[in-house]
Batch of 4 targets.
Target 1
Amino acid sequence: MTSRAGPRSNHDARPAPSGSGRFDGRIANAAASLRTAYDQVAAGARINRPLILLLAYTGLRFNEAAAMRVGKVDLKGRRIRITTAFAEVEGKLVEQSPKTGKSRTVPIPPSLVPEPAPLLDGQPDDALVFATKRGAPLHLRNWRRREFDTAVRDAELDGLGLTPHELRHTAASLAPAA
């Protein structure tokens, strides 16, 4: 299968145990397969493709990406300023400091720069980059069930136990392999 899936690396044939720090080539290949799957036109592809790719290749946490504002994304400088994240409190999303308590700047790989561009064009700086059709923040549980798990099934990756958080580990695995 050919794809435009970012950095190449040597792949381990066996999956790494979760949290082992070992590179899991199957998960990296899964990110590439999801990228290829979203090359096809789908209703949610406009938001889901850039979101999945940013999670897989930048290491953003889902709730950081969900809270990302247009004005914090610098495509020319290839960086995202992470200053807030959403947390679910009593069933409602609350914007707060990132999990680490500190803001940080995350580089965007050159191949991903075009992905979020259509979501930023013409939007005010305070608009959410990733939002529902009604402009509301994405809830991880709903997004995972309605969008992510469907994409995983469609890409025939359901046997991997792939989760949005696993995509964060993919980014960590690919960084030293690049």
Note: The longest strand covers residues 85-89.
Target 2
Amino acid sequence: MSAADDKAQLDAPQPSSKPKKPLSCLSCKVRKLKCDHERPACTRCAKTNSECIYPEARRKPKLLQSNVKELEARIAQVEGYLKEAGQSRPDTTSKDILVGGLVSEDCVSGKDQQSNGITWEDDAAFQNLNGLPSTFAGEDQLFSHDVVEDNEAPEGAQLLFGLAGLDNYAGASFESGQLIDLGMSEALPPSEMIEDLHTSFFSTQYHYMPAVHSGRYCKAFYGNSLNKPPMCLQYAIWAMGALWHPKYDRIADVFYKRARHYVETDELKGDGEHFITIAHAQTWVLITAYEARAMLYTRASMSAARGSRLVQMLALDRIDAPDDLLPPSLGPPIDWTELEERRRVFWIAFSNDAQGSIATGWNSIIRTEEIMTRLPASEAAFASGQEETAPFLDEVMKGAPYSGFTGFLVINEMLKSIMSHVHLIKSSDRPEDAINGAFWQRHRRLDNQLSTLFLFMPESFRLPENIRDPLATYINLNFHACVICLHHVALEKIETHQLDDSLRKECHSLLKNAAEEIASIAKLTSHRSSLFSNPLCAFSLYCATTVYVYLAKQDPSSGINSKDMSNLELIINVMEAISRIHLITSAFLQQACLDIDKNGLSSIIKLPNLYQYRDLFGGPASSIPLMARSPISRHTQMSPPLPGRLPLDKPRP
């Protein structure tokens, strides 16, 4: 193009720009009304006789400094993640992960995705969940690990964190960035589900594991993002709330796996400062409870051991020690409620450790004689924050008053003592000497302890007045189960060594009375299936069946009387109904049916469903705890930690 042409183009008239819209007066602008722009006063201001002022110029838009700072901080955070990922995984392929509507770069290999322990099969559990919002159960959107490759975001991927319809849900956004830290890209459940799971946990599961103060937890959960409970604790509570829930049971395992993933990942951070916390101890005790209820006993024992060691690292077993020379791991509690919550976390860990020992026979990690922490206060005091002084465990075993969750701990301590007495008999115990033998001295001491505990049982635990209280029912069931376990082994020694018949009659009477009490409680509470979800409640029902099998075995020709037969049928029917929901009760039901069959009592004790349940878990291998094993049940073998693979020289097919 020539210079003349350029000059001609410059001299050509330029198109006039679009005229700007006149400015509205300040009065109309503030009230968001349409202004007719009349001068000197618009029609609205003239009618109201108000001052009409027009701005001299348009206000220039300002950049919000706070937004700029937030974006800069977020970009710096993402750059830090990239730098850490590049240092730890230099050979991984670069992939784009969509976070909060932004495309950020992270290095996530397929191997790492598998190591998370959270598989695509877990997400499939959400697809068939009826009754959930479509935004939560939508295909390939939620609870997934969508990785965006080649800088191309799939359609709808921007909803991973900012979900349509979930913007107002509490917990639906990830302000704390915890999920980003783990390289995860999953959304939390919608608020309706979270509310349901919280309600389910604190109404049905909390009675057996009151380690989390509901008010403090909810305040932290719905409060400042910096003070939110760690993801591992949130998922552990949701897993327990979903367990056996009529609507959410199918996704309980997904929540459980994520809780384990987060708590194990926290252990690998730093030098331990990320997991040596009360919240992580709470997570481990809840994970242990979940695994025990799912009959994952080997895994539950390992989780219980981790929880027990963690509370010892936190010095929760020495909270009330007069002089503690060990360095502290926690700061002082802000109030008595926090101090009480620490006590409860320790005692739940103690309970899990004791139950693991009862079930497997493995040694306890927490030794009773070394505990210097008072028992939990009453539930009313804990809920209200009213300070209350509780006794020590050894004082309660001697008759000191107690309340609330302490009854649960007393039961565990009694069962642990009886288990040691029954299954760790030495040759020096001389069970043939009913007067001076160490075995019978321990027997009388434990029997006196049980009598003392029955005598000084708090009024709030006595039946039938408190039959609607789950804790009262649980404590009474298991006190009677303790009596049965103690006197079963006593009867065995009496018959083996042909001791005085008066001892046999006394043990026989105590066994029968305890079984009748359990049958009576079962009759009153059989409609409450959630009550028997605790492993020890199903254990007590099974203990009662062993008494009636023993009575029938004493006289195979005539069997048992009509009253005893009615009680046995009632207990079997209750176990059958509950076993449809609870797997643990199914294992005990199978063992009860095997006891009847293998002791040659099928013709005397005629149960229509006997053969249906006897091979439920593989016939000769038994899934019942070691504590439940008596002379009646020794026809079955105890399942090893790796069933089907032991012994190593001749593994079972």
Note: Residues 543 and 628 are 7 Å apart (CA to CA).
Target 3
Amino acid sequence: MPPLPNSHMFKMSHLKKKISLESYYSAADILNKLEELTGLVYLQDDNNPVIGFLPKNYLITQNNQNFLFTKTDLNKYKFSSYIENLLDFTQFQSQELKNSNREEISFKGGYIGF
């Protein structure tokens, strides 16, 4: 089995391709190599595994305060604002979804996390 490349060796072209887990590598192997990427999560969804990472925004809740962070570069984020109401964070950008190319392979809205 060939070794997996380190996460810093990935280019955006790699990130836009669908990765088949029916290969030499287990999901754990792939997740281990991607561990440095912000927002890394794995879901086994009815035999359709999903790996999510590098969200446009993410939210951290501590001591009943919600902190919103926004992506500024490939794996860089900055604090954007405090969010009073979680519903404000969870509203989809419907116009952006309407204008998107449905044939493109990528995650198109929704929330992954725990």
Note: The first helix runs from residue 12 to 15.
Target 4
Amino acid sequence: MDGKASTAQNYLERMLFDERVKPIKLPLSLLEAITKNFSDDHEIGRGGFAKVYKGRTRNGMIAVKKLYKTLDMHEQKFIQEVQCLIKVRHKNIVRFLGYCADTQGEMTDYEGKSVLAEVRNRLLCFEFLPNGSLYEHITDASCGLEWRMRYQLIKGICEGLHYLHENHIVHLDLKPGNILLDNNMVPKIADFGLSRCFDENQSRDITSKLIGTPGYVAPEFYNGQITFNLDMYSLGVIVMEILTGQKGYSTVDKVLESWRNRLEIAQQETSLHQVRLCVEIGITCMDANPENRRDTKYIMDKLKELESSYEFSEDAFSFNGLEKDSHRKDGAAANKEPTTVNGTNKNGIHYYISPTRPHVVSTHEILGAHERQSQQADNRSNKQYEDPILTKQSESTMAPAHAVQVNGGVEPEPWSGCFRS
């Protein structure tokens, strides 16, 4: 490895430990060294644009995406895309570390003769995410990831897509395979924007053959309509797939029933409200009419609204003195009979805290538990208990998604590049 490559490697090592360090241009010799000259045993994936290799550094690993040399890419568009990637910084977007655009002399055939030609090597480097893609973790609701994890995945994907749309970036190929997971299962969106680097004819060809992933692409995509609504349709499919383990439509009642049977009693109130909202988001986003799909801002507002309605605050509880007595240094409270603590959150929902089982449960859940015990003893028909917290929807199926009304407003115009100048 030459001196230039060694200096770049030191900088790259710093970048892995400090997110404030900005991406840089990396020499081809360094990328060849850390991927063992792009050996097959370092390959971790491939797609329509590139092969992906893992690069081993002294203190970690990175993902090196080597674009196919056969792609007729405009140099200026590639530089613009790199500038775009440098600006994109969000916890739910795969972090960009650097790029390479070096030329290299290679023997090639020209008019029946072998000639030495200068070939441009274009590579993009990103953080390495060890848990693979979302595709590898999707299962139905009866097994696999618990609800809390699935909800965090949905929320993180929505936050990442909202960031892209706020910065006028259309992904064009959002699917589970392009959502990567870090050590903590935080979702990060990858592989956006490369279609803008090619000439018009090639871009159209790539769009029709590679980006339009069956099952995730919106109907209007093949008519050449490139808008934010394309990504919203793909988001809807992904949300439903996380909820149910399969692509396609499902009713709110059906998904709720599936999760109601799996969730523990203490989780049901909050979790089923989350399930319901996520199902409605998924179904609405999958509407065949793009004008009926919600945008990311609406979705983020609804998620925040739901979460704020279940926030707990110490100020929301009025204690009966147990907390102070139980922490007295003189131990005067040690012989006191255990008492309960009652509280009310800011929405007026009453809660019960047991001193012998120090967790918070809703009084509605306590009443529900007693009611279930009574029914198990007295109801010989074994009729399934109806959770008193959630009012079950009518037996009629949910109205088609296209019947949902949307708020008016002007949607920001997507740009062919990443940011307006």
Note: The CA atoms of residues 122 and 396 lie 56 Å apart.
